[in-house]
Design brief:
The complex is a heterodimer. Chain A is mainly α. Chain A is built from 2 helices and no strands. Chain A is 87% helix and 0% strand. Chain B has one domain. The chains are: A mainly alpha, B mainly alpha.
Chain lengths: 61, 223
């Protein structure tokens, strides 16, 4: 196990600790999404998934 | 009546400042993407070796914090070009690796580039035209990023088959969510600084491209 891996892991761990309070604040303060709000996100993301499957199939052929 | 007039004037000025923010952000984003692509091209031609995970991480986080610190001054523009130039420098060796490893490497790179462009324009266009407020996704997306960072740390020490691919698949979905979230923050007043808005969208595009390329390489790469 080399020192570069350990140092990278420490930096990434530090980043998690840095982001954690912001995540807590966002989770607490941000408006709660309704079922309709989440539908407005899920449909575009489903489109992205299908598009990526299409890209993979296109690149394979 | 006077109050009504003031409210209309304020609302008009808000719309104007939002439109100005969106215009400035997309102009700066286009310029930084071109700059970054140019640097990546130079790195490819000069056969620059991969910078290594640690150097990339330190440069990425350092320049990101520097840009955030300088976001309200003209030096913020210099910093954003330094940041995107550095990201371009890290991208050159990655693209070279795909071109040299896979027989259809050029097709994979072009497909990833085109796919990233289409996904970004579609999602950003969707958030811009519907003007929906996606701020409710903030906690969810940040939690996702933290889980991904944890998974990256795990993948550095434990060899779990398929973990890298799973990380790439989730990052692609997270970045798609972030494109909606960051664009909506510009439209709905959550972000008022065009330098930070540009950096956010740039990171989304960069991460989307590299992880889409990884997925394409894994599923459609020919030796």
């Amino acid at each position: 196990m080399d020192w570069e891996k350990i140092l990278s892991a420490i930096i990434l761990g530090g980043l998690i600790l840095f982001l954690y309070p912001r995540m807590r604040k966002e989770a607490k303060d941000a408006p709660k999404g309704t079922a309709d709000d989440w539908k407005g996100v899920l449909f575009p993301l489903l489109g992205v998934v299908l598009f990526i499957v299409f890209l993979i199939m296109m690149a394979k052929s | 009546m006077n109050q009504f007039g003031n409210a209309v004037a304020r609302s008009e000025s808000q719309i104007l400042s939002t439109n100005k923010l969106i215009k400035n952000t997309y102009i700066l984003l286009s310029m930084t993407l071109l700059f970054s692509a140019g640097i990546a091209g130079v790195a490819m031609v000069m056969n620059v070796p991969p910078l290594g995970f640690l150097v990339t991480l330190v440069g990425y986080i350092g320049l990101l914090f520097l840009t955030a610190k300088l976001r309200n001054s003209v030096w913020g523009l210099v910093s954003v070009f330094a940041f995107t130039g550095f990201m371009g420098l890290t991208l050159g060796p990655i693209i070279n690796l795909y071109l040299n490893t896979f027989a259809n490497g050029d097709q994979l790179v072009m497909t990833a580039m085109g796919g990233t462009g289409i996904i970004f324009l579609s999602l950003s266009g969707y958030a811009l035209t519907t003007r929906k407020d996606f701020s409710f996704m903030g906690g969810f997306l940040l939690t996702g990023i933290m889980v991904m960072l944890g998974a990256v740390i795990l993948s550095m020490f434990v060899n779990i088959p398929g973990l890298q691919l799973a990380i790439s698949a989730v990052v692609v979905l997270l970045m798609s969510g972030f494109i909606l979230y960051d664009t909506s923050r510009m439209v709905n007043g959550g972000e008022t600084n065009y330098i930070m808005a540009t950096v956010s969208l740039y990171i989304n595009i960069y991460m989307l491209f590299t992880h889409l390329l990884h997925l394409l390489g894994a599923f459609a790469g020919e030796d």
